[in-house]
Amino acid sequence: MYTPSATDSFLVDPDERPWAAYASCRQADPDLFFPAEGVDADAALKICRGCPVQSACLEWALDARIRYGVWGGTTERDRRRLHRRTA
């Protein structure tokens, strides 16, 4: 079983996001998930596609209203659209 380390990307609080210990992005460069304006997020989205906790990540990002970055296989724009549809 995987034991999270202090250096894991995105694993800020294992009590808040226990699913993050199993995320495909945990060893990836965080900059991929927070691309500069005008830079596409394709590399991050590709990592998310195969992630075993993608749906939990997306649910957390939507519930927490995370505005920046790629979470749960969605971009900032994708999540804004999802919020508008459910409002």
Written description of the protein model:
- This protein has about 90 residues and is mainly α.
- Helices cover about 35% and strands about 0% of the residues.
- It has one domain.
- It is globular, with a radius of gyration of 13 Å.
- It starts with about 40 loop residues before the first helix and ends with a helix.
- About 20% of the residues are buried.
- The N terminus is likely disordered.
Ordered list of secondary-structure elements with their pairings:
Layout: H1 42-49, H2 54-63, H3 76-86
Compact summary:
This protein is an all-alpha fold and 87 residues long. It is built from three helices and no strands. The N and C termini lie far apart (39 Å).
What does the overall shape look like?
Answer: globular
Strand content: under 5%
First and last CA, distance = 39 Å
Main beta-sheet annotation = none
Secondary structure tally: strands: 0
- What structural class do helix, strand and pairing data support? mainly alpha
Characteristics of this structure?
87 residues, mainly alpha, 3 helices, 33% helix, disordered N terminus
